[in-house]
Amino acid sequence: MSLLLLAQKNISGNAFRSGVVCLCAMLVAAFALFTTLLMRGAESSLRLAIDRLGADIVVVPEGTEAKVESALLMGNPVQVWMAEENTGKLAAISNVEAVSPQLYLATLTGASCCSVSDMFLVAFDPNSDFTVQPWLNQKFGTGLRLGEVVGGSYISASEGEQNIKLYGYLVTLKANLESTGTGLDQSLFLTFDTARDIARKSKNQAVEALTIPEGQISAVMIKAKPGSNLSEVAMQIMRDVPGVTPILSTQLFQSYRTQMNGLLKTILIIMGFTWVLSIVLIGLVFSMAANERRKELGILRALGATRIFLFKTLMAEASLLAFFGGATGIFLSVLAIYLFRKLIMVSLGIPFILPSPGAFLALVLAGLLLALFTVNLAALFPAYRISRQDPAIAMRE
């Protein structure tokens, strides 16, 4: 009888013992993969969001930092204002290479004049923009015309149409940006001209008009000159332009990073306890199983089975249980993340994006290897001890 076949028969011969070991392997693999995917996905989302903004420094009205970060990261609509003349003041600061103003707007809640409720709208100046405009020029060879918009990856028009209604104004969805796993995926990007045209016509077409205060903007994106010290540029902005707060791209979403680090520490502690308890429980199960099968294993020794063969059989049994349990845990973990991704983002208050196929496969294999390592480590000592017993003594017991 082959080693694997014997291990399979031993597994099927004790469903309860095998089920306990499989359950432990499933928990270890599922917990490890879920945690890794969650934290790596959140970190990747933050990095992509910063790259999408394309700015070294984001200047916002003083006291609105948290609101703007929440809007950019989680798509929570916000309207904040500062003087448009700040754009010129910021451009005059040394080591500032380019500046581009933006308007942060929002659709109405539950109004029929808007296709989507509570959507975050970002209006940009195509003449100075260095984030959306270059992407449009590269893809289409031209920018956005009046009435055209670009949507995040979650934005879609009505089936068979390309129009989205905003304040009774039909805009044309020209393209979708790459997914970032953040609120930018459910945001609309439009030009200043389109935003002001919507505001002007909404007075007659919408339940409530879109209001854009004259001479006001919401934020300014800043690109520093190569080699500049961003901290020094930020300090100069605070000295020269009162009433605004500069946020370095490296410090953007800092509150969310702190929240993620706290969450990660908690999860790692829970995972550590789970891993240790799983090893102890699996070790006890294998020790009990070895004692129950002393006579059986003694007979195998008497029939000519070597100690190494018995040891390999027991370890093969552990590996099979670990593989099936780990594979089940990985499947359930991936299914949960795929089905409840948005719920997880909202519940934990963090962004999330799935990794690339290559990285995803590597994480799945790592989770499976962890399950195999855990079960084999727990079964190692019981398997070694029972394989070393004297067959004559084992058969008499």
Largest pleated sheet: 9 strands, mixed
**Largest sheet: spatial strand order:** 6-7-5-8-4-3-10-1-11
Count of separate structural domains: 2
Number of strands: 11
What can you tell me about this protein's structure?
The longest helix is centred in the N-terminal third of the chain and has 39 residues, at 15-53. Strand 6 (163-166) and strand 7 (169-176) form a beta hairpin. The strands form 2 sheets. The protein has a 9-stranded mixed β-sheet with strand order 6-7-5-8-4-3-10-1-11, with helices on both faces. Strands 2-9 form a two-stranded antiparallel ribbon. Helix content is 57%, strand content 14%. The protein has helices at 3-13, 15-53, 65-74, 86-91, 132-140, 192-205, 230-240, 254-292, 294-302, 307-339, 341-348, 357-387, 391-396, and strands at residues 57-61, 82-83, 96-106, 120-124, 148-151, 163-166, 169-176, 187-191, 216-217, 219-224, 244-248. The chain folds into 2 domains: 3-47 and 257-396, no CATH class; 63-242, no CATH class. Helix 2 packs antiparallel against helix 8. With 397 residues, the protein is an alpha+beta fold. It has 13 helices and 11 strands.
Question: In summary, what is this structure?
Answer:
The chain is built from 13 helices and eleven strands. With 397 residues, it is an alpha+beta fold. The chain has two domains: 3-47 and 257-396, no CATH class; 63-242, no CATH class.
